[in-house]
Design a protein that fits this description.
It is a single chain. Strands 5-4-3-6-7 form a five-stranded mixed β-sheet, with helices on one face. The protein has a two-stranded antiparallel sheet with strand order 1-2. It has one domain: Glutaredoxin (3-Layer(aba) Sandwich). The protein is α/β, with parallel strands linked by helices. The longest helix has 20 residues. The chain is built from six helices and seven strands, in the order ααβββαβαβαββα. Helix 4 links the parallel strand 4 and strand 5. The termini are far apart.
Length: 198
């Protein structure tokens, strides 16, 4: 009589299940990997040193904020996907916590998403946010900065650093939400130093 092969995965259900789960996980992760467009790096490079697209957007109190009003200052424009979601909450809390520190660097910081100003007010009330949040309904401004997610109305979590002369100095596409503002403050120091050295 032939004895079953006890070393077979099929004879060891737990091992067989582990292999199936491992393969399934790998396939899922692969499916979630976003491959940037072939010209993404080129697009970003061409924006650096170019005039930042003008914008005029309402804040959480429906007060109009215009980029042109901040010429002569560094502007941190931090796009994020959606109000009152996990990572976006951490990112916005960071900017509120450190908001007062930007003035000492001749800078202002704005966070912006495509939800309306009523959503921004609710977000501010819920999470005690006091910095300026901008409403880009329809994503027109996000699109002008190439920050709109493909085939959606949501912005990518990308932060733009605009020099006092109105040109784009740097684009951060790897934002760490928990320390978004402290990273911005450190980067402003670096960018200002590099700008003075030119």
């Amino acid at each position: 009589m032939n004895r079953p092969n006890t070393n077979s995965l099929f004879a060891r259900p737990a091992a067989f299940l582990a292999v199936i789960i491992g393969v399934g996980t790998a396939l899922y992760v692969a499916s979630q990997t976003v491959t940037p467009p072939a010209n993404a790096a080129k697009q970003e490079k061409t924006m650096i040193g170019q005039p930042a697209p003008a914008f005029s957007l309402p804040d959480q109190n429906d007060k109009t904020v215009k980029l042109a009003d901040y010429k002569g200052k560094w502007v941190v424009l931090a796009f994020y996907p959606a109000d009152m979601t996990g990572g976006c909450t951490m990112q916005n809390r960071s900017y509120t916590e450190h908001n007062a520190e930007f003035a000492a660097k001749n800078a202002v910081a704005f966070t912006v998403s495509t939800q309306d100003s009523a959503s921004k007010r609710e977000f501010c009330t819920r999470d005690s946010l006091t910095h300026t949040l901008l409403s880009d309904v329809g994503g027109k401004v996000a699109k002008s900065y190439d920050a709109l997610m493909d085939n959606t109305t949501y912005a990518n979590r990308w932060t733009y650093y605009i020099k006092p002369d109105g040109t784009i100095a740097y684009i951060d596409k790897a934002v760490s939400v928990g320390k978004a503002a402290t990273d911005s403050l450190a980067l402003l120091d670096k960018l200002a130093k590099e700008d003075k050295a030119k």
